[in-house]
Design goal:
Blueprint (H helix, E strand, L loop, with lengths): L2 H6 L6 E4 L3 H12 L4 E4 L3 H10 L15 E4 L2 H5 L4 E4 L6 H8 L8 E4 L12 H8 L8 E5 L4 H5 L4 E7 L2 H11 L4 E6 L2 H23 L3 H22 L10 H12 L4 H10 L4 H6 L6 H16 L4 H11 L4 H9 L10
Parallel strand pairs: 1-2, 1-4, 2-3, 4-5, 5-6, 7-8
Antiparallel strand pairs: 6-7
Helix pairs in contact: 5-6, 9-10, 9-11, 9-12, 9-14, 9-15, 10-11, 14-15, 15-16
Length: about 350
């Protein structure tokens, strides 16, 4: 079904959501509260049972009463078959596996929206890139990305949130905008898919760095400088990959970066803060049920930027802290004593 046809039945679209972590559950619940019947793919049977029987997700979004319009299932085919729109909210490292399993079940007319943030380690592809590789029957202008400063719990509590949806096809982006928009969830459109995805992915790496300096007690000056220079790295990589530089001043750029680098609900900032306090990564990850995407993305960002010869010293420092046991204190010294440069790049 093309976007024009979908607009004619906007209020009764068939929707599937793949992934019932905190963000997937929050977005499915938003759609359910709008009146959509939402099939929700759940990996854990105990989570499926809790959503079905008690209208809650006690593991990933505790304390939130979920819409009765959610139909949880552990059967992926049931969730994605015969749908007008499928929202994919899986961790980045399982996107390839899940999308391959989805492929034979999707109609060629289905709109596919990624709300996952990350860059695949082996291919260096963003999530829409992985989707395009694995869903060959879905045209690229029917694949979109939803991103922006949006903690799942605050969305689930109906706190005002503003995000962006990016798609190569403006009409498709506008349709998705109307599907998700509510009085507390405002959606802007954007045509810069790669820019929106890079902003949402690399900010997780910078957020780990922000957490590290906070854990070390380095103060607000340090955090402000790190956020600003972190965005310079994101923008530099984005421009090299063909993104619109204006995207990085927007919701999926500075908006998401500021939130993730400063908010107490940020898993990536939490990982960094514990590293800055002296904990080791395996110990930190063993305590976490939910995924901190920046840990995995740090590896792909490091290798991708090296391949493209893009200077990203903060991101590289995070990589070496996470994977080469570089001490946070030494990383700070290295960053502060680099060759002096002009701030504004041409």
């Amino acid at each position: 079904m093309d976007a024009a046809a979908c607009f004619s039945r906007l209020n009764d679209m068939r929707i599937g959501v793949v992934g019932a972590g905190s963000w997937g559950t929050a977005l499915a619940n938003l759609l359910g509260n709008k009146g959509y019947g939402v099939d929700l793919w759940v990996f854990e049977p105990e989570v499926r049972d809790a959503i079905e029987n008690r209208h809650e997700n006690p593991i990933f979004l505790s304390g939130i009463t979920l819409s009765g319009n959610l139909r949880p299932s552990c059967d992926l085919e049931t969730v994605v078959s015969d749908k007008d729109l499928v929202l994919v909210v899986t961790p980045s490292h399982v996107m390839r596996t899940v999308s391959r399993e989805m492929a034979p079940c999707l109609s060629p007319d289905t709109l596919v929206v990624s709300a996952s943030k990350g860059i695949e380690n082996d291919s260096w592809l963003t999530m829409t890139g992985v989707l395009q590789e694995n869903l060959p029957r879905i045209p690229a202008d029917q694949i979109a990305v939803l991103s922006g400063p949006s903690f799942a719990r605050e969305v689930a509590c109906n706190l005002p949130t503003v995000v962006a949806v990016a798609c190569r096809n403006r009409q498709t982006a506008t349709l998705i905008q109307h599907v998700f928009a509510t009085p507390f969830f405002r959606v802007y459109t954007n045509s810069d898919v790669i820019g929106v995805e890079l902003g949402g992915s690399v900010k997780n790496v910078i957020a780990i760095a922000a957490g590290i300096v906070d854990g070390m007690g380095m103060g607000l000056n340090t955090r402000a400088a790190l956020i600003t220079r972190g965005m310079a790295e994101i923008r530099r990589l984005g421009i090299r990959m063909g993104a619109n530089p204006h995207t990085f001043a927007g919701l999926a750029g500075f908006g998401d970066l500021i939130l993730t680098c400063t908010g107490d609900l940020s898993r990536n900032h939490t990982v960094g803060k514990k590293l800055g306090q002296g904990m080791k990564l395996p110990e930190i990850l063993s305590e976490m049920r939910m995924v901190a995407e920046g840990v995995k993305s740090s590896r792909s960002v490091y290798h991708l930027s090296g391949h493209l010869n893009v200077e990203m010293p903060i991101s590289h420092a995070v990589y070496h802290i996470l994977h080469d046991d570089l001490s946070p204190k030494e990383a700070v010294v290295q960053l502060m004593t680099r060759d002096l440069k002009d701030e504004i790049e041409e």
